[in-house]
Amino acid sequence: MPENVSMRNGSAVAGSAVLGGSSRAAWTVTALSSVLIFTTAVDILGNFLVIVSVIRNKKLRNTGNAFVVSLAFADLVVAVYPYPLVLFAIFHNGWFLGDIHCKVSGFLMGLSVIGSIFNITAIAINRYCYICHSLTYDKLFSCRNTMIFVFLIWALTVLAIVPNFFVGSLQYDARVYSCTFTQTVSSSYTMAVVVVHFLVPITVVSFCYLRIWILVIQVRRRIKTDVRPGLKHSDFRNFLTMFLVFVLFAFCWAPLNFIGLAVATNPKKIGPKIPEWLFILSYFMAYFNSCLNAIIYGMLNQNFRREYKRILMALWTPRHLFQETSKGGTEAMKTKPSPALHNND
After folding, report:
1. What integer pLDDT is reported at residue 132 of this predicted model?
2. pTM (2 d.p.)
3. How confident is the model at residue 217 (pLDDT cuts 50, 70, 90)?
4. Residues paired with residue 339 on neighbouring β-strands, in sequence order
5. DSSP 231
6. Which Pfam family is one of this chain's hits (predicted)?
7. Mean of the per-residue pLDDT values for the chain?
8. Is residue 185 pLDDT above 60, yes or no?
């Protein structure tokens, strides 16, 4: 790692060393802490609502929503441990929690982001199979197979994080008050991370959604006559919801990944030229993404919106919180359910 970059960023943690950062204007600290407090609160509440909604509601409890719950768990991971530690570092202007907390925090942050992109990729493939290859969907995404897919997602996610411990890339960065992936440790490793953990999944998801969009346009223009009957409004709305989840994820995480790609090409030359405000903005955009998915579900999906309200009301009577919802417009469908976020009509 270039020594000047490491020292400037305060990104080398040794033992239980105390790492401080340069003092910042009060408004900057207030802004960063406010964004993170809001993100953490909405992340915890929103993703809790998503998971409980699927547990309670028969109409939402289908194989496709297994990936939605898995994605909610990935978003929840950062809110319960790493974000509070980042807030502690912001308020104390440095890392005072030692190397173990730093490594665990960095590991969980990596687990969250890679788990998120892998789950978003799985959701896109799920949509693609359901809409474009419906005859094979039930066999491919049976309950048993779906659970295997979810297990594989998290196994691959953990496997993807492990090399960081050998490369030594999980370090404290004083610019963002976080123990996180350090882009300047190894150029080749940073490039591999961006390509394998961001560009390749984004390409796969883009392909899946492009094929779905083509099919939707063909159906609407009545060009294709052999398409499966009844590309229902609810199916299209489900696809649109998860497409928006993908777009927002790509928008929030692209700046940080492209900065990493640029720095990896020439760390000594490009690293110092990255404006600190741009680096901080890209990080907190990425952090903010973890609270958005639950909001999108609530805005675009009636079942989730109704279930959110029921859960919030049930919090006053906790014994009803995990009771199954089967009436009042949310009973199980007699027809084949959509793979996820079913029935937005």
Report:
1. 86
2. 0.84
3. confident
4. none
5. -
6. 7tm_1
7. 83
8. yes
Token code pair at residue 78: 């950062």
SS3 call for 316:
coil
Q: Is residue 225 within a helix (H) or strand (E), and if so which, with residue range?
A: none
Q: Residue 174's beta-bridge partner residues?
A: none
- Decide: 54 and 19 in contact? Cβ < 8 Å: no
**Length of the chain in terms of residues written:** 345
Measure CA of the first residue to CA of the last residue in the chain; give whole Å: 55
How many Å apart are CA 216 and CA 199, to the nearest integer? 25
Residue type, 75: D
- Tokens at residue 148, please? 């295997």
Asked whether the predicted pLDDT for residue 216 surpasses 50, the reply is yes
SS (H, E, C) 324-335: CECCCCCCCCCC
Listed in sequence order, the residues at least 6 apart from 125 whose beta carbon sits closer than 8 Å to its beta carbon are: 204, 208
CA–CA separation, 15 vs 39, rounded Å? 30
286-315 per-position pLDDT tens digit: 999 999 999 999 999 888 999 999 998 887
Q: Are strands 178-181 and 19-20 parallel, antiparallel or unpaired?
A: unpaired
Q: Are 84 and 41 in contact (CB under 8 A)?
A: no
List the structure tokens of 238: 């489900």
CA of 197: how far to CAs of 115, 143, 248, 276, in Å?
10, 27, 17, 24
Task: Give the model's pLDDT for residue 184.
Answer: 80
Q: How far is CA 234 from CA 28, 123, 211, 240, 334, in A?
A: 44, 16, 18, 10, 15
Domains and CATH numbers, the chain: 13-320 (1.20.1070.10)
